[in-house]
Structures are given as structure tokens and as C-alpha cells.
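DM from R.C. (forwarded with permission)

"hey, sorry to bug you on a friday — could you get me a structure for this? deadline for the figure draft is monday and I only need the backbone to look sensible"
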Amino acid sequence: MKPYCCAEAPLFRGPLDGVRLVIVYSVFNMPGKAPSRRPFQRPPTTGARPPVDVGSLFATPLKHRTLEELAYEHIRTALVQGRLAPGQRIVAAAVARAAGISRIPVLQALRRLESEGFVRINPHRDVVVSGLSPEEFRERFLLMAALEALCLREADGKIAPVTLKRLREVQAEIVAARRAGDTARAVAADGRFHRMLWEVSGLRQVVQVLQNVWDRGEYYRVIMHARRGGFAAESLAEHEEILRALDAGNTARAAHAVERHRLRAMARLAETT
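My reply, with the result:
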């Protein structure tokens, strides 16, 4: 048996990087005969040992993260946090240089963000952060109002006392952030407040849709709340309406309250931005 190709390849990525596997390809060169294959034979065992408990090898599961995923997450975070404003141009080559990677994963990440509506890629490959027209704003708020109300109706009988306690704690955090003039902290806590209302429904696909729509409007919410004292006092009062309904075990009333909250927020945003 004569080896004709030998290649060295990584065996693991991440914490085990550096462990390498040598792969050897072999053939039999026998005139008039096809390459033969020998059946795999296990070596004889004497006093076989019990199998290794592989679950104890790693504290947490290994996760493989591609460069595209990392680029996507970093750019999306910048968009959601308002560090990239609507209308601003994104140069893929500059992003790639800053990240120390090639343009390919950055372009793949930008195409994914375009499919989610965060950016717009023009025919000449210019990438621009998407803005929202008044019509798009209205449509998105109507969608959120309907889906948030749906989540609370679906949550009937599922809201445990510990969930109500956590909602109250997040509401208190929003109040404290407003007093401190920390708009970013207040808006982040507001996002957690609403996501808790969505997740208690158990409707995972609805939660995913809501999160995507919510993230698209983060830039505008930060501006609106900053111009209203760090966080709109009206929003806090509307949160209290939702919480009182939930405390009373009336999810139908809470659903109406969250729907009113969303539509009033739409009007506030239109007045402020």
C-alpha cells in the first residue's frame, strides 16, 4: 500500500484549536485489479474498560461561530444601538479592515441584514442604513400593537407570580434610569419589559417577529425618549396600566392596555422625531 496524498487538517475549532488530525489517502496499484479494500477490524480487547463519560469533558457545549455570524452580530448591534444612523453609508471594505477579516463575510452579513430590512444595498453595491417612512412607521406600530395584544391573550393562566415580580423590578429600573437621565439604560430596560410580556405567551415565532420589528425602531425610540426627559412619563404610566391588569389576573384587560400603549407610542414618536 503506497500513500499518494497526505493532508494535515484541524480537528477542532475553538478551545481545542491546535489539536490536528493527519489524513492519509492510499490506493493499491495492482495491474488488472480494482483497488482492494480491507474490512476494518477492531483490535482484540482484554478486560474492556467502560466508555468515557464525554459529558464531563466540557463545562459548556462547544459552539462554532463563523466570521459571517460575528460580523452580522456586531453590525446589527451598532444599528440597533443607533451608532449607525438611517441614511448613513456602510463601506464593506472599511468594516472588513477594522475587523481584520476579508470583505466576503462582511458582505454576507450585510445581505442578511438587508433581508431583515436594516440596510439597503444599491445596484452599485453601496450599502445604506435603512430609514422608515411615516407609512412604514404606522404599519410597524399597528403590527406590534396586534401581536403584543395577542401575546397577552395567549398568556392567560401562564403568568406566574415570579414573572410579575420581575416585571415590577424592570419597571423600577426604568424609573431609576429616567431620574438619572440615562436614556440608553431606560430604553434597554423597556425592551426587557416588553420581551417578558411576549415570551410568557410561548409563541416563539411571534416573539421573533416582534423582536425584529422592535430592533428596527430602536434608534427612533432613543431619540424620542431623550427628548422627553430621558424616558417618556406617559410610557411609564401606560406600563402601570398593564401591570395593574396583570396583578388582577385580567389578561384581556392587559391586552387592551398594551395595544393602547403601542398606539399612543406611535403618536408620541410622530410628534417628537
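R.C.: lifesaver. Strands lie at 2-10, 20-27, 89-90, 119-121, 127-129.
me: no worries. The first helix runs from residue 67 to 80.
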